[in-house]
User: Which sequence fits this backbone?
């Protein structure tokens, strides 16, 4: 992908000339600090030798001088799209950073995503406080409620104006970020000083230019219980097959990580790797499976929801309310096709099917993943207070970054079949 | 149910006249010790006053004098039917009690249930030792493999004779116990001194005359994760409904216990309680649900797999290889009918469906449930060594008992809708 | 222990002549229903033949006719003593049964045990509602706070009078129950119609006449993590010893159950079984340990806090604020004595010490244990509404029972070293 | 710290001129590929403009051409120092990569760290295979056993020579890496072509030039259970204080992360931040605590084992067998000093002390942390096969790296009190 250095530039609402209210011992970030996109020293040197600027993200973090006057601020937080571990952590830390550190007097929680910004929904916002967000990180889901689907940008900006909201935090996926971009654009057109910051939520970890998304590690860990159960079911029956469907609409990172974390998984099917059911050659799944069953009499298979979509008869494409392509259920298809194939060959087979998706995405966030949520939220607030807008908070090579929404949503991150990750998966599976 | 005192009598292979090899400090059980079926003092007194014998189970436990000479014994263990937490615990403690306490020289693990007793299967048994069973309780499933379906009784007894097996432990459900009964009968016909002991496995806790079955408590605890996730999904979407299907083919004990353990469950549907989808009155599910959604905008529903079977169009009955009636999938039916009904009423609804069965049954057993497995296995060995046969190891009012297979399999235990359990469930739900 | 039939009689405040407000479909309990203390049929028959009454507990459960008029009731709940999994479950279900089923208008939560009944503490009670108790079962501890120590009975009854409290629920151990007894006596002396019901809390499961106490099963399961870690530490070092201290002041049930649930535990030390450190014979711990270490090079030992108290130099006895004997720390003593002994013998040893107590007792309650809490609480309310007082809610042979406080606190339940439980523990350990 | 570009150079045993046996589709790493130490674009550009080389680590990964001929290889793996989640994962993946991918015929597991390389220990190595390492990642600890302490370098190299070992993997901390360096040096002196690769194990995450160490994230997650229990204990008693001691000998990363992941922690004490017990000002702990208790009546405190060492009376320094400074027990000191201080002020206080260390370090590794172990091990094998030696496998900005042992052990990584991490901790605590 060719990128221009302008791709990395973050819009600013104006000059940041107010003193930050943060404790003076805070390690404020220099406004020009960056995180280079590349890491190879030779490549980096080449940019300079050719007289080019090194492509780099703006480094996130607290600024000594800020744009918004906290005492005049009103903030709003919303969550959109499907559940993901950590949503409540992010809500909690947005609230505590806005109120506790910057002394922003009012933080609203908007109900059910963008819908709550449409007065027709009659969904009154919640006032978020330390008290009502204190324990929420211990429960999964989102206390604000979420929804898919879009609302009219003009209507939403009207609401922001009427409520005097000048800091808007939108936690959600691609669609949510695009919507945030539209709001930021419309606010700019109207001459409003609203910082719109998107906090990227993708349990699939599939956002380009962001090396890690919150909830992903918790999801991988949660899949292990199911993988272990599938292994027990596979070994507990003659010619047993444990088949586990995991999330991963367009990218198979959860499936790949779960495979490496649970080395008894024998087949890892992801959207990036094409395969056929029947036929010959290394990409024909069922013949490979027959061969393994005859040899080992059990198998464990993990399949990302977006894998093998090309196997379905060509139906007209369907999209959900967020505009995502609705996938046919590959788990059910595989379960049925495996049974059919073995029956045809008159070989006994016992397929046990596990659908993990809601069970994985609806739990709370744990450990280092929760810390990641906390820091993501804090940096989102720092960015907003410094007057940034139309951006997402990212992470690159161990640093939090500012990423323009346009760049973050340009394309999805996918597993590179020539990467070390996939090589490792290949080495520990048989397909 | 009317019962005769003969219903409680356990067949014995002969007089137990050998000294037990157990440590002399062991609290041996007197051979006449019993556990009364009833507990109400007035009712108990009435039996005596009327000159009747108090109906009672034989008390389980080690006997000071045993029937089988351990040094001449060969034991075999098999697991049949679906997985259940604790199978490996039982296998482990059967092995350690037989070998460690009674010094039985050989314990075979039969592969894949009764199938492994049919030489046509070509499934050689495993020799079970302390070494190869040491850690198995930490993993779910069964190291022996399991299967459904029956084998010819004569063929199986031929195998037992050929292998000189005189102690057979069959871990499984109703079907398994009936098969064990057939083997015991056939062995008797042939004049063989084989103790056939069935260890009741039913994750549904639905065996009559047995107040608690292994794996049940672990299953209830495992359902909580899903119930909690369902609650988060329900609250995370506008008009969200979390729908959780749990095990419970004929009896809804898991659903009822999970409801009491997770008090945010609003609907508990079990086979014992009939309901209709539409219509009027207190048993019409969908109108009740509509009313709740309009009021609360979220609901959590747990449904046992055997609930609402009468809702399906009358199809010809189908049975699986174990002879169990195959149920239509009530979870899927409810999911679809709810969506349809709300669509018809033009009310938004977001149903998130969780199918827990394999995930719950394939895990390891925990805590007191594991202790229960250990003691069940030890008592099974004590019974076999004392020359009992054609029986299952049961539990009644805090004591382990001997229960004739015919009694244990006579009918399934079901939730009494007038019991305190169901009253409690009613009190904490809205249907 | 000889018991008189009067030992089982529960005081009643007066005739229950009001109709219960519970749903008429409720399976009301007949007021004369009982649960026999014995279970052996022969022993039961003998009572009758000798013209004696069968000793039996009153059966717990809802009565069709009650004593207290719910609309005039004020209830209070308190928790005393150390934490135990399930306290919040009991508080929640007391509240929901009182308010939801009996429509008692006010339920107070008394802060920090009996202290909150002393106005000098200036601790205002909380009003408990469905809203503020809805989620509390998901967290450990007690939302009311707890304390040890006694308050003046007269002062406390003054408070109950001033607050018009006529239903008092005291969740706690022996000391708490004795205090509840004193309050009941004082109320009787003053002619007050106050039902005082004690809900037995003992993580050690050591109450006589009660076969199971809440939190015990959760505690056993929680110990497994530590036992597993101790096993890893023991095997991870040359001559490694994993030493785990668990709760069990006077009775070693947790240690015994944890041993059976985690069969790699090699030594189970409980208060009931005396042992010496040095010396000879089967009760000398250190020589046995040396022998094992020389043979196996690792060992796992679990020790109840009350074990081996006789090993300490005779110090003057000390008691804590609840009047419990303060034990010397046997875990630390063993750790040090083992190190010393092996050093003396010039054998390398690596002792890793785990103290589990607070970590085990402070977590939430799970699964069937949570259901047990719910039913215990419901039955406590039924008993109070029916006009019972001066009693604890017990459990015997699968039934909930009413047990007079004097009987319940007469002596502690201990492990019978000739029972099947201890025989099983012996069989799976080496000491 | 000033660094020279030579600090980053990895010794090579010779020219890698054999074709790698890995699947040709593998994404081989170019031998000159690097990972820049710095990430700020301006700083990177400045190096080039000044004519300097950009400081950078060698990038880890499989090479198309390797140095060792696999069919002639013998590998050995050892674990040294304290337990850490993931040791068995690393052992497993070293084995599977060596045997499965490179077809190295023999992989030895050396028992109990370097001790197993001293023939005087009479500890025979284990032959590691796919079979005996298949499930080991599901258990904590190390199947090889570990030990502290050093052995004579010459003796160990004699053993390597006698056993024909040319690939040595040493999993351990600083001391282990230094010892590996000595072995590499001695091997070089003797002209032996032995690749010595150290895999950094530090649950404290305190190795400089390595941004993440295995087991750390699992440890942080495991601390949450204890923090939650401490919170329950603190709130469950009047003036309750939950005090949790965690690992962190010289660096407080676990304490800091656990604080951010569990936001009810009010005090986070780490070695990097000095404090006094009494006195005045912002660094006086006890007065701050008194003030909080008077206001809130409960507090949760987490303390790294190495915090507050300056509070102990100056005793002669002591070191353990690995040469680590033995710390006085700050947890016990705090517990006692807090009690003393409040007693002096005549304020009731209830301190509940949790020591987490063994319980945290002895469990298995989960999720993404397990994937990290897998990739660390694979890269260690790639490095060895490519002829690298005297290095550790590191991780920097999302890439695996080669780090010279001398650089990795130069100094410990510590929390920068001016970093965003510490600022975040400060913001969520009160001290």
Assistant:
């Amino acid at each position: 992908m060719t990128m221009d250095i302008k791709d990395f530039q973050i819009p600013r609402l104006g000059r940041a000339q107010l003193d930050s209210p943060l404790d003076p011992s805070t390690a404020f970030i220099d406004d020009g600090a960056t995180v280079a996109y590349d890491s190879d020293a030779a490549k980096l040197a080449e940019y300079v030798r050719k007289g080019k600027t090194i492509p780099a993200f703006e480094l996130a973090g607290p600024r000594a001088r800020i744009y918004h006057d906290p005492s005049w601020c009103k903030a709003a937080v919303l969550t959109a799209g499907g559940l993901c571990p950590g949503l409540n952590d992010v809500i909690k830390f947005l609230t505590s950073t806005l109120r506790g550190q910057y002394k922003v007097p009012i933080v609203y929680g908007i109900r059910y995503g963008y819908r709550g910004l449409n007065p027709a929904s009659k969904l009154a916002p919640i006032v978020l406080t330390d008290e009502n967000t204190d324990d929420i990180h211990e429960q999964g889901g989102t206390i604000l409620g979420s929804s898919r689907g879009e609302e009219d940008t003009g209507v939403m900006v009207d609401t922001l104006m009427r409520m005097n909201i000048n800091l808007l935090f939108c936690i959600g996926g691609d669609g949510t970020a695009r919507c945030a971009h539209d709001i930021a654009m419309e606010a700019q057109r109207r001459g409003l000083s609203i910082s719109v910051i998107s906090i990227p939520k993708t349990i699939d970890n599939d956002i380009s230019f962001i090396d890690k998304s919150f909830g992903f590690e918790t999801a991988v860990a949660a899949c292990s219980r199911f993988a272990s159960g599938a292994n027990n079911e596979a070994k507990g029956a003659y010619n047993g097959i444990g088949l586990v469907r995991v999330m991963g609409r367009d990218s198979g990172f959860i499936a790949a990580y779960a495979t490496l974390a649970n080395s008894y998984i024998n087949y890892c099917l992801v959207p990036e790797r094409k395969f056929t059911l029947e036929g010959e050659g290394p990409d024909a799944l069922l013949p490979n499976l027959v061969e393994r069953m005859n040899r080992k009499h059990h198998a464990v298979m993990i399949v990302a929801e977006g894998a093998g979509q090309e196997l379905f008869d060509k139906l007209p494409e369907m999209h959900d309310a967020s505009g995502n392509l609705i996938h046919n259920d590959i788990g059910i298809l595989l379960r049925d096709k495996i049974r059919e194939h073995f029956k045809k060959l008159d070989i006994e087979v016992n397929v046990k099917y596990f659908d993990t998706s809601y069970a994985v995405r609806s739990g709370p966030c744990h450990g280092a993943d929760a810390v990641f949520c906390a820091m993501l939220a804090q940096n989102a607030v720092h960015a907003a207070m410094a007057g940034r807008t139309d951006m997402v908070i990212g992470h690159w090579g161990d640093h939090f970054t500012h990423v323009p929404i346009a760049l973050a949503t340009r394309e999805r991150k996918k597993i590179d079949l020539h990467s070390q990750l996939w090589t490792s998966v290949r080495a520990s599976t048989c397909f």
User: Anything to note?
Assistant: The interface with chain A takes residues 138-139 of chain C (CB under 8 Å).
